[in-house]
Each structure stands twice: as C-alpha cells, then as structure tokens.
Write a structure and sequence with these properties.
By secondary structure, the protein is α/β, with parallel strands linked by helices. It has 2 domains: 179 residues, D-Maltodextrin-Binding Protein, domain 2; 96 residues, D-Maltodextrin-Binding Protein, domain 2 (3-Layer(aba) Sandwich), CATH 3.40.190. The protein is built from 10 helices and 10 strands. The strands form 2 sheets. The chain has a 5-stranded mixed sheet with strand order 2-1-3-10-4, with helices on both faces. A 5-stranded mixed sheet has the order 7-6-8-5-9. The protein starts with a strand and ends in a 16-residue tail after the last helix.
Length: 282
Amino acid sequence: MIKVRIAGVPEHFNLPWHMAIEEGAFADKGIDLQWEDIPEGTGRMCDMLADDKTDLAIILTEGIVKSIAFGNQVRILQEFIASPLLWGVHVAYNSPYTDPSELEGGKVAISRFGSGSHLMAFVHAHDKGWDTADLKFEVVNTLEGAIKALESGWADYFMWEHFTTKPLVDKQIFRRLEDCPTPWPCFVIAARQSFWDQNAELAEEILATINNYTREFKQIPSIDRTLANRYNQELEDIRKWLGITQWSQKQIDLQVLNNVTTTLFNLNLISSKINAKDILTS
C-alpha cells in the first residue's frame, strides 16, 4: 500500500472522499489515502502543502492561487467543485447591524490570512464599493473562534459558507445579512509540486477514483438524508445546497483561472499576475 496524505475541510462538499475511503475504493488500488480534517480551512492547508505536512488538499481556488503566487510550490490537479461557493455574511445575533452597508469600516473575523474568509472579504468589500485598504481583521482560526469573536465584539462580521453556518443562524447565534458568491468555481484539488513530480500516475489514479464517485454522487439513493444526518443539517437545507452544487471531473478552465489571478492582482492581494498554465498539471 502506498500512503498518500490528503487534507480538506470537514464540510459536506467532501463526503465523496469519505465514502470512497470507507468503501475501500482507494485501498483496492493499493492506495492508503489518509484524510485529515482541517477546520481552520484553506490558509492552514496552504501552509501544510508548503511544509510537506500533506500531499494533496481540497482547497479554495482563490486561496491556493494566492499561495502559489507567493512561491508555494503547488500544482492544481483539477477542479473539484465547478459551482461558486455561497459565502454568508454573518454578524452576532444580538449585533446592532441590520444592513450590510453598516459593516463598512468594521473588523472582519477570518480563519487565517490567505484563507477564503480573508480573501473573500476583499471581493465583498470591492463589490460594495468600499475602500479595501480600510479592511481590518481578527484572526479566529475556526468557526468556534468566530462565534466568540462576534459575540464578544472583537470582530463585527464573519464570512463563511452559507449552509455550514445555517445551523448557527437557526439557533440565533449568527444573523446572516446577505450572501456573496465566489465569481469562480470554488474548490480545486491541489498537490505539492514534489509529490506530483514523483507520483504523477498515482495522482491520476486518485483523480480517476474520486471522479467516479462525484460523477454519480447526486444519484445515490437518499444521499440528501445521508448528508443531513452526517453534517447535522436540515434536510431542506441540504436539498437546496445539492441543487446549486456541481462536482467537476475536469481541469479548471484557463480563462477562469486567469479571472482569479486578475481579481487578486486588482485587489492588491498578489504583486504580479502569474501564468495560469504554470500552475496546472495539464
């Protein structure tokens, strides 16, 4: 068995990986795929790839592109989720804020610098016409940290995936003021450059296996109930999420990737544009 380390957020997007591992799909091919949940999200996974603490990561597109632009030796193997991520803009339930416009100049809770919650705060502020240079941040690491930060007033608002935070909205811990979708496919599968260089055929085998799962994932009988039970979600919410989520089995489009790099450059999040072809494996 060949051991391969893989990291991803503990969210419903990644259930196909868990199903494939639990059903022995990788083991049948001689691959010991070792999954690690990373509640801190993309910022930490970028560090893990850089520090050789994981071989693969299911990671936000904008986060890994920024990390690569800053020298992280990583390749994008393929697109994983072709649809945008729906980022909810949240405040504490008892917060005085009632309209998104009131958040201008406020402090944003983020999991880490370079994370989706950090980068999408710039996209959101730009969409609102705010001066992104005025953004201020409070690093909270995890969703639990964000709850404390908003309730204590250390931060004013927090951006996280709409359906992951929906139970907190239902419990009146957060209030969602609006949603901000990513302007690109949200998740990709990324690999350390050195892992790809030494294990390209192995990586392709892993991709073929997971693509077989994601291709038919929505057709699995009662998959909505499985997701709701496993991730403590309301069945109605999971059905809405399934309706707007599309898994991918192909490489991310160059034009899409160029849009990501251009957006990050225009927001002064990277200092120079990178050639999209240089960060893809094919």
